[in-house]
Amino acid sequence: MKLLRSFRRVAGWVPEWVKVAFLGGAALLLFFLGGIIIWAAVMPIPSINSFENRQVAESTKIYDRTGNVVLYDVHGSVRRTSVPLDAISPYIQQATIAIEDDTFYENAGFRPLSFARAAFVNITTGSYAQGGSTITQQVVKNALLNKSKTIPRKIEEIILALRLTRAYSKQQILNTYLNENPYGGTIYGIEEASQYFFGIDAKDVDIAQAAYLAALPQAPTYYSPYGNHRDALDRRKNLVLLKMEEQGYITEEEYQAAVDEAVEFKKALAAGIKAPHFVFFIREYLEEKYGADQVAAGGLRVITTLDYDLQQKMDEVVTKHGPGMYSNFNASNAGMVAIDPKTGQILAMVGSRDYFNDDIEGKVNVTIAERQPGSSFKPFVYATALKKGYTPETAVFNLQTQFSTACSPQDVANAEPPCYSPQNYDGKFSGPITFRDALAQSQNIPAVKVLYLAGIGESLKTAEDMGITTLREKPGFYGLTLVLGGGEVTLLDETSAYSVFANDGVRNPPTGILEVTDKNDRVLEKYESKPDRVLDAQIARQINSILSNNEARAPEFGAASPLYFPGADVADKTGTTNDFRDVWVLGYTPSISVGAWAGNNDNTPMVRRIAAFIIAPMWHDFMEYAIEKYPADSFPVASPDPSYDSLPPVLRGNWNTDPSKGLHDILYWINKDNPRSGFNVNPWADVQTIHWDYPVQLWAGGFAGGAGSTTPATGHGGMYAITSPGAGSVVPASSPIIVTISATNFQNISSVTYLLNGTPVGSSMVSPFTISFQPAVQGHAALQAIFQLRGGATEQTSIQFTIE
Fold first, then answer.
1. Assigned CATH for 75-272
2. pTM of the predicted model as reported, rounded to 2 decimal places
3. Which ranges of 247-330 would DSSP assign to H, the alpha helix?
4. Which of 92, 328, 476, 492 is most exposed, with the fewest beta carbons within 10 Å of its own?
5. What is the tens place of the pLDDT at every residue in 122-175?
6. Where, per UniProt, does this protein localize (predicted)?
């Protein structure tokens, strides 16, 4: 009674407005709490069963061919591998509890004081930055709720945490927390974090490593060991260790040893991804076959074909040579790929000299980019010609030639469209040359002739059969430029196609997969050999013999070029585009095929040097290592051609087939579509014959040494002579020189070509075959006239005179 009277006396002293305010506040508080209770009872909260029954997304792991080296984890929003609690180091468990929730084993899933403190900070700052969450609350947040930071979501979190604590053991909750907690970027779960940062399983982590891992989740990006705040991470790691000691998890000696330990993190690039271009090449394949969701979160285990040791060597070589190629040749980028010819398995792939260099578009995989191959396409054309019946000893003339029938045969030097007169790289025209020497020395003009002989459509078919997938247009789209790189191919395709030569004509499609299993260890895909003979072994061996013949290539590249490997049988071919935007080297043994490319992703030209100078040294450096790791015997030798002795002479290297008929290029002697059938009875029916023969006749005049002759040529039913200027005469240099001829029968003459000191000065196809020209030289001069007679024969004569 006294207490009641005292309360009434005190209440009497309180102003009336305070009483009203107090009662109103109490009523509002009761109303608010009641509302919360009612709302909590009726609001739609995710069922606690969804925690137990949910499917935890697991990363798809991509491994090297041993299954031991993790190249990458393909992921969508998470990258996670779940492990049981007994597979997680006790140090990790203790460090996490010490820094995140030191009353974890005592609390009911919610700590009111911590929550109140965090709420006060959030209200006063308006930031919602403070969480105050227990480990159980964080499990709810990570597993059952969205990531929003609102009051209703926080209340949901608390209620579910209380329910969770009653439904599950602390061990289950801790295990879930450690398997789903974020540790930076897309790294989720302690097993992933242990592998990512230290390259070891979570069960093998020591005290100091555990402290680092426990320090990360509060602000994974800020505390990243690869970022700018390593000192802050070290301080937080030491705080974790201090709390572990204070809470009795470790001794003082263990604490000090862990503080002093110099923990080594894996390199940032290696930690995240190895062989990035290859990895994303594989990922694209997997997503196309299995779907992006399955790849991102299906827990696939992918064993690839990659030889990680070989990959490391390839990375090293490209990194080593890349800067020099840029500074010396303006080639900012390079790529390389290696394939096993016997299986088609991709052993190594480097898609740029620096994946992370955006200045060179380093993330673009140049091994699968379409680029012009230059002369590296030639072997497919020569192989097609060999299929058609030609031989490596077949002779053609390496002379400047006008190939366009829209232009005059005499216009040999005109390369402006619609004319087409390609050059050899060295600017030289050597006369007769065999297929073997022409391919080995990468001569352009003979290659164009070989394409015409082989057929554009047939050559495209050979390339397609061998693995070139990008030449989709009709033959007329490419024309004769095809053999010099007029189409676009990929480095991967060409390296695979060259492996057909290496494998005796048998193709194995390129693949990067050995095995794919799902998270239940069910095999979804397994490598199966799919050999397909696409080229006769005899032809493959003939190409191998040409491309591995160092003596044959020496006149162009030298005897000790980067294409040569003393004591090893290596076949190789370079390619340089006419505009110097791409350089290639492709080479192989029976055990490995390796292709390399250099250039600029923006297609700007390099310095005007051939591939042998720019990229061959890099390729050679890697190839030396590759052929040591994958040794091989010599290439099998092609069998002798049983009909060789009966072949037309030009197929046996005899370019002067029948001196009585004069000198001619190959179209004069054989039927190009059936070269072994014998003499061509109507050579002039082929529109290219006169175009090919014209420079041969010019060359034949100089070859015959006729500059000193003043005697008219006789034969083939007549006499042919130069009548003006007169032999031994002196003519003024200031006036045009008019050239006239005499002949027994002008009707027997098809055309006359004139050369002054070996240089063409004009021609005429109209009787009386007179020309005029302005002399560009003075002094002693030799004038030649080459008569092309109807029926194919030729005659030539010459005079000497003086120009003053």
1. 1.10.3810.10
2. 0.69
3. 252-260, 268-272, 276-290, 292-297, 308-329
4. 476
5. 444 443 434 458 887 778 776 666 545 566 666 777 777 787 788 888 898 899
6. Cell membrane
